[in-house]
């Protein structure tokens, strides 16, 4: 599974891909254009180890493209009047999900679009504070996810993007491997599929909740800064006005010493 960004980053510290609950780690040292976070579980490490052992070292396909599921949660800074596009590879038959939410900047709205590998827009541009798109049984290929801020000429936007790619066919492969060992795991596999599906839905809901929380926090900080700045400005105006009034009132009652001339 690949993530390609059109914009050029000056410094990238690390990129890590892990299955199931895993998320990318990608932080820029010089700018805050992107920052990825990672969450892993014990099952993640087990499946990761099994996949690494089974992969052919000579294969040109990246090892993480054969994982059962990958989830990515990251933030991007989109400058005013700019558009950023990202390309995510989706395996044939996989479930592709992407959502975005504007966390900070301007009117807290941006354009969001998803382009199919065939070149058709499956999610046309919409100027909204948040949106999402999901496709079951994908034909496979590189999907383009674009964040458009061209309508905003002065305000940059901080956007949170969440992408997941789930491959149900990988569970069938594990099932066949276990059946070759004369193990009956049909009920177990069905239970795991149900749990995995529920976990993905919970992650999507948690991502949306975290996005709303971050957006509310940014609005709170902006309002706090606005109130503080205007309060200081009003205090300064009142202070200057008071001094000016006192000065001119004293001028009105000022008596000049005039000596009479003979």
From TrEMBL:
Gene Ontology terms: cellular component: endomembrane system; membrane
Record domain GOLD: where: 83-165
Family annotation (InterPro entries): Emp24-like (IPR015720), GOLD_dom (IPR009038), GOLD_dom_sf (IPR036598)
Tagged with keyword Transmembrane helix: yes
Superkingdom, natural source: Eukaryota
SUPFAM superfamilies registered for this protein in UniProt: Supernatant protein factor (SPF), C-terminal domain (SSF101576)
UniProt entry keywords in alphabetical sequence: Developmental protein, Membrane, Signal, Transmembrane, Transmembrane helix
Keyword Signal part of the UniProt annotation: yes
Membrane topology field: Single-pass membrane protein; Single-pass type I membrane protein
Compartments, as annotated in UniProt: Endomembrane system; Membrane
Family matches, as PANTHER family: TRANSMEMBRANE EMP24 DOMAIN-CONTAINING PROTEIN (PTHR22811)
Protein name (Swiss-Prot/TrEMBL): GOLD domain-containing protein
Organism: Menopon gallinae
Phylogenetic placement of the source organism: Eukaryota, Metazoa, Ecdysozoa, Arthropoda, Hexapoda
